[in-house]
Amino acid sequence: MNGKGILIWQGKNCGDKTPRSAAQACQEMGLKWVGLKIGDDASARYASYTDMPAAVRVFRDAGLSVWGWHYVYGGVRVRKDGSAYRYGPSPEQEAAFAVKQVADLGLDGYIMDPEKEYKVLEPAPRAAMFTAGLMRMRGPIALCSYRFPRLHPEFPWAEFVAAADVHMPQVYWGPGRAVPDLDQSATELLLKRRLPFVPVGRAYIGDGHSGPTQSEVRAFMQRAEDRGCPGVSFWALDFLQLHKGGAALGDVIRQFVWSPAVVPPVLPPAPVGDPNHLHATVQTDGLLVRSAPHMSGEVLGHLTSGAKVDVLDIGGTDAWARIVFNGRPAWTNVCLGNRQNIKVD
């Protein structure tokens, strides 16, 4: 999620309804990545495009990284009057669907979108079941939900944040609130857990507010860049092309040149003990191996369940193991939040 990106809801509302025209629009705005909808609950029937494999290829061919976003219900529906009832696929089924879609489509990452359905009917246990099912996810996971945790105390923040690699809040500001809302969202979410922060800005008319102004969109991107966010995004390409004034907002996004933050190198911790006698057994299938001890390191491959790896050192708040992979030094995240991935012999 480095640089400018955008989400797409319904591809039929973008350009001439083909992925090619949407990808061209993304290119013209200078975007680096796109989030395509992979489905609702455990069904792909509401995906951004009917032929998702072909759509992913088109965006990739246009030079874009492709993530998949997914609205999840956790087996619950909420009526307009606020009452809730049990219905639909279970949290485990939704998670299994997400893992399979991301793998089958070869996506670069997964965006989970839990909202009001996870504020009722035992939300924490259901969130725990869902996130446990994401343990097999290949690639990073972004949490795309409410911008201000303090306004949603019943939402199971602990469970979802523990499973996330990226904060991706929906910072859909009101008039004149683009920068203050971004700052407040970052303050509240980073207190939950320090993760890369990639806010989603308003590019639509709704929620009782008029459309965002050009100056607000520009200020939003500038503030995100000034804060050192790795990237920024907008909801959504559909609305930029559907609503009056959307073309002008697209021009603002195009004209803004994103300057990547200069991140100081993460130095490996000093070796601990004799590396010939310190080993680890991988417990999770598909554990990513990277070139450096942080999430932006190049992905070199995957470790399979039960593989024996030589660990040279373990350190950090989220523990990174320095290992030997295919005969070369590499790193893997052995403990991310409450996800314990290996045990040391």
Structural summary, described in words:
The chain is of the alpha/beta class. It folds into two domains: 3-255, Glycosidases (TIM Barrel, Alpha-Beta Barrel); 275-344, SH3 type barrels (Roll), CATH 2.30.30.40. It is built from nine helices and 20 strands. It has helices at residues 19-28, 52-61, 91-105, 123-133, 157-162, 178-192, 214-226, 237-242, 246-255, and strands at 3-8, 33-40, 65-72, 76-78, 84-86, 109-114, 141-143, 166-167, 170-171, 200-202, 231-235, 279-282, 287-290, 299-303, 308-315, 320-325, 328-333, 335-336, 339-340, 342-344. The strands form five sheets. A nine-stranded parallel β-sheet has the order 8-7-6-3-2-1-11-10-9. It has a five-stranded antiparallel β-sheet with strand order 17-16-15-12-20, with no helix packed on it. The longest helix has 15 residues, at 91-105. The model is unreliable at 263-277 (pLDDT under 50).
Keywords:
SH3 type barrels; 345 residues; 28% helix; 9 helices; 9-stranded parallel β-sheet; 2 domains; TIM Barrel; alpha/beta
| Tally of strands | 20
Q: Give the CA-based shape.
A: globular
The proportion of residues forming helix, as a percent range, comes to 25-40%
> Averaged pLDDT, please?
87
Number of helices: 9
Q: What is the assigned CATH homologous superfamily of the largest domain? A: Glycosidases
Euclidean distance between termini CA atoms: 36 Å
Which strand order do you get reading across the main beta sheet? 8-7-6-3-2-1-11-10-9
Would you give the CATH topology of the largest domain? TIM Barrel
Low-pLDDT residue intervals, each spanning 5 or more residues = 263-277
CATH second-level architecture of the largest domain: Alpha-Beta Barrel
Order of helix and strand elements from N to C terminus? EHEHEEEHEHEHEEHEHEHHEEEEEEEEE
Query: CATH class of the largest domain, anyone?
Result: Alpha Beta
Q: What structural class do helix, strand and pairing data support?
A: alpha/beta
Tally of domains: 2
Radius of gyration: 20 Å
Q: Tell me about the biggest sheet?
A: 9 strands, parallel
Strand content: 25-35%
